[in-house]
């Protein structure tokens, strides 16, 4: 995989949940309830299921969705068009992963999102963090890792909405983006996974999406 081949529709390789595994069954359950159109219901923890496992399956799914959504607009998100990673004039994000880059660095949006998606993929591929085998327990810090991943994935939605929504409209993808984002927001709200302050760049949109479902 070469990060130079950015024209492909998926920005990073898709993370697959192994078929036949319990997580695969959970993913199928999630897809089936999503099909019913009731997103509030679709995000709820299925009866008798493990919360960590449910959050893990959905985190992988959101990673794949955002990957594909961002993949469709990479040609519009360039060093020139987006020299900083922002979500409107009031919010700017600097990258740090705590290991390779300890001190937050200012970088362009495509660079930031590249760092972010590579970092998320590494977390998802780490069997000690996201065990795919049945019976392997989740680590004690799983919830804090999942929260960090989701908080960072939110920033990609925020950047797309603030800086590239006109491109999304031209590509006639706004319905797809809105549904994906609404699903994401209902999920993080259901389990209180992202601090309200972090959601501020899209607060109005979040309220609008929520009010339609009450």
From TrEMBL:
SMART domains found in the cross-reference section: Mob1_phocein
The keyword Metal-binding appears for this protein: yes
Keywords: Kinase, Metal-binding, Transferase, Zinc
Residues that, per the record, bind Zn(2+): 77, 82, 159, 164
Pfam family name, one: Mob1_phocein
Stored PANTHER family: MPS ONE BINDER KINASE ACTIVATOR-LIKE MOB (PTHR22599)
Name assigned to this protein: MOB1A kinase
Source species of the chain: Ibidorhyncha struthersii
Gene: Mob1a
